[in-house]
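Hey forum,

I'm writing up a methods section and want to include a predicted complex as supplementary material. The small molecule is glyceraldehyde-3-phosphate. I've pasted the protein sequence and the SMILES. Can someone with a working setup run it? I'll credit the forum in the acknowledgements.
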Amino acid sequence: MRNLAAGNWKMNGLVADLAQVQALAKAHPAPDCDVLLCPPATLISRMADAVAGSAVMLGGQDCHANASGAHTGDISAQMLKDAGASHVILGHSERRADHGESDAIVLAKTQAALFAGLVAIVCVGETEAQRDAGQTLDVIGAQLAGSLLAQLDCAPNDLVIAYEPVWAIGTGRTPTLEEVGAVHRFMRATLLDRFGAAAREMRLLYGGSVKPANATEIFAVPEVNGALVGGASLKADDFGPIVAALSRG
Ligand SMILES: O=C[C@H](O)COP(=O)(O)O
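Reply by user p_vandermeer:
Happy to help. Structure tokens for the complex are below, copy them as they are.
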């Protein structure tokens, strides 16, 4: 399976920043991994124009569970697709914390995204307090159980899981490689148990303070099939080496 280098711009990015994406696309015309950028929704359409003809794919950072309707300020999966997105991040810990998104809400959004033909990147991860209490695998297991479909009624490639320890996001701190490996092994086993052999083809991303300096060692951990990168995805000079590391992996 091809690794996935996914960049989440979060609430960052103006039209002037499209130059970073063009520089990235130019520097990596044919990467040996999938490359995805998830800018704010305001930029998807213009970014699609900016990277037309390149290997860079685009995604949203959230979508509503409904296809349309009276939901002021929300964006549907169909709208993301219409703007040029092929993927959408769902259940990011910042959405879970800032907008009270439960596993059930994430599940409904995941179904909407898949129905619209988007690849769903579902995020899970423990808080620092949960980690300190030794609850990491219990938390991940519960989030996987509640945020995913009962059956895999999509291609295994269309559902991606991102493990993002909440305490590692934007902090410069990362779990040990052994800890990353243990969670990813657990997630693979859980998905195999739930979905059968097709789950071998699902990509499992690590996210949380991935930088050029730690990318190679993290991507060498078994069952890590890519990264969901925040801060280091904003600049081509930072994200480029991460794409290169995943192309080698
Ligand atoms: O979605 C990305 C993650 O939240 C990681 O963010 P970060 O790379 O800035 O730590």
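Some notes you might quote in the supplement: The mean pLDDT is 96. The longest helix spans residues 177-195.
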